[in-house]
Amino acid sequence: MKKVLALLCFIALFVSCKPKSETTEQTALKNEVKVETQKEVIPFRWEAANVYFLLTDRFNNGNPENDINLDRTNETGPLRGFMGGDIQGITQKIEEGYFTDLGINAIWFTPVVEQVHGDTDEGTGNTYSYHGYWAKDWTSLDPNFGTRKDLENMVRKAHEKGIRILMDVVLNHTGPVTERDPVWPSEWVITEPKCTFESYETTTACTLVENLPDIRTNTDAAVELPDNLLAKWKEEGRLSMELDELQLFFDRTGYPRAPRFYIIKWLTDYVNELGIDGFRVDTVKHADEKAWAELYKEASYAFENWKKKHQDRVLDDTPFYMVGEVYNYGISGGREFDFGDKKVDYFANGFNSLINFELKTDANKSYEQIFKKYSSLIHTKLKGASVMNYLTSHDDGSPFDKEREKPFYSANVLLLTPGTSQVYYGDETSRDLSIEGTVGDATLRSFMNWEQLDSLDTKEVLTHWQKLGKFRSRHPAIGAGKHKRLAKKPYVFSRTYTDVDFKDKVVVGLDLPKGKKSLWVKGFFGDGTQLYDTYSETTVEVKKGSVTLDNPYSVALLELAK
After folding, report:
1. Would you say residue 470 lies in a domain?
2. Residue 469, in any domain of the structure
3. Is there a single domain that holds both residue 352 and residue 497?
């Protein structure tokens, strides 16, 4: 009997203990995997991001069935009509891994809200609002770009790839007046005088160009909704819903029903409902700056609200981001933009970053002059803020290398300069920027040259942009770190970034000779350190303060070997 009892106790002990033992082992294994995974986690920083900027209508046609809408069939000037690009087209390329292969971790796309239905000729050829900057109704999407479901799907697919979404927004003006699009009420907009840009007032209290009604962003006077908009909502069966939502917004915020607050509500709805990560704000210097602080406040509220409702889809704790287009702002100005009679600090009015119009000129200088200048300014005058650098854009008629003769050098400058980098669609494929017969900025906006990707020359350029882009996206030190030259010839520099318990350090060599070369890294990486050159996919060891590479490449991108 005692033996039976002993046996039963042993069996019970075995049964009760074994699962506990397995659970402990499984837990330990999970923790170990988690720790290993955490080692690979690269913190996202907007100031080091690699942003891809595209015109929604000119990038990729994912749904040919929405190419023609709203009877937009009049003949236009060259490259001034809709060409079929849409939200589904962007999603296609996200899913294909095109952006991931480029090292892109944020996508900025031109506005997709409903545009004016008609066309107009302002001296540059008959034009439809293919570019997205002529809003008619901020509460709905334009059918040429796609549906709200399309946009929701694009944001979700981007987030699944670890890519943030920057929505381009316009608060400063409506679309132009056309035969099909009447002017908004005078309580909402001004139609004159035209801006002369001689002072703060002649830049903000005016219309940017003729026939582009300017929203009264400097008034707190309450206004009624336009009859045309109410009629449109009623026809679409959403009048009650829109009015109820506005009531809730104004009750919560206590804002007066002034024009800018209606639009702020409509724009931040996309953040609240879809989880948009940030805004790129158009024509910033043409509106009262307090409007931007209000926009950022409400967008941040909406973003945190979305996170609470979708905790399983939150990428991390990065706050809402806002970058502004203050036309002709340059990094040398530091935090302020000078109107001549007044200076404005937009960084103190809602903006984390401003687009920097200075790099396209600085690009003519040496690498060291550029990198040293930007690193110094970002860590002194602009500490706590940043800039978004570009070499090519949709409305800058004087881009760097317009003839696309220096695509490799352009990549080196743009992707290795401290600050956020903005790749304009086709920079990486040398898309033509000089289209015969075009007028004005239309020449910068041809359809993405997908058909040229099979060309050997295009492949070589694209591969170079991909290598630099992926290296940048893995290393916040490139955009946000401190720069130091290690050697003059061949040119070698380091970048170091430290944030709490995360440290990132890399070395880059440029203008290197073909064949065998030695890169000086003494004082940064010690002898015996194993480094990996991601450009040539080669592992090397530091010996006597340098590493030796033997390959045909003029670039080396060195990181600690795994």
Report:
1. no
2. no
3. no
Whether residue 512 is found in the same domain as residue 369: no
Contact in structure between 340 and 285 (CB atoms under 8 Å):
no
Q: What CATH number is given to the structural domain containing 486?
A: 2.60.40.1180
Point out the catalytic residue in the list 86, 242, 282, 559. Answer: 282
Q: How far apart are CA 296 and CA 317, in angstroms?
A: 17
Whether 396 is a known active-site residue: answer no
Q: Is 244 a domain residue?
A: yes
d(CA 74, CA 71): 8
Question: Over 80: is that where the pLDDT of 28 sits?
Answer: no
What φ, ψ does residue 467 adopt, rounded to 5°? -65, -45
Catalytic residue selected from 86, 288, 325, 559: 325
What CA dihedral angle connects 210, 211, 212 and 217, to 10 degrees?
90
Neighbour-count burial of 405, counting CB atoms closer than 10 A to its CB (0-12 exposed, 13-18 middle, 19+ buried): exposed
**pLDDT tens per residue across span 400-454:** 999 999 999 999 999 999 999 999 999 999 999 999 999 999 999 999 999 999 9
The overall average pLDDT reported for the chain is: 93
Tell me if 298 sits within 8 A of 264, measured CB to CB. yes
Q: Report how far residue 290's alpha carbon sits from residue 294's, in angstroms, rounded to the nearest whole number.
A: 6
Question: Comparing C-alpha atoms, which of 49, 50, 89, 43 is closest to residue 66?
Answer: 89
CATH of residue 227's domain is: 3.20.20.80
Residue 168 bears catalytic tag? no
| HSE of 401, CA atoms in CB hemisphere, 13 A | 23
Give me 488's structure tokens. 């003059």
Q: Cβ contacts of residue 364 below 8 Å, gap of 6+?
A: 400
526-550 average pLDDT score: 98
Cα–Cα nearest to 146, from 65, 237, 35: 65
Q: How far apart are CA 146 and CA 86, in angstroms?
A: 6
Number of domains in the chain: 3
Assess whether 367 and 512 both reside in one domain: no
Residue numbers of the domain that contains 361? 46-447
Which pair of tokens denotes residue 361? 């000129």
Q: In the chain, what is the straight-line distance between the N-terminal and C-terminal CA atoms, in Å?
A: 61
- Is the peptide bond preceding residue 143 cis, with omega within 30 degrees of 0? no
- Counts for the chain of helices (H) and strands (E), in that order: 15, 22
- Tell me the residue type at 469: G
Domain final residue pick, 399, 425, 447: 447
pLDDT tens digits for range 305-361: 999 999 999 999 999 999 999 999 999 999 999 999 999 999 999 999 999 999 999
Distance, in Å, from the CA atom of 338 to the CA atom of 341, rounded to the nearest integer, reads: 7
Residue 398 structure tokens: 């004087």
319 and 305 together in one domain? yes
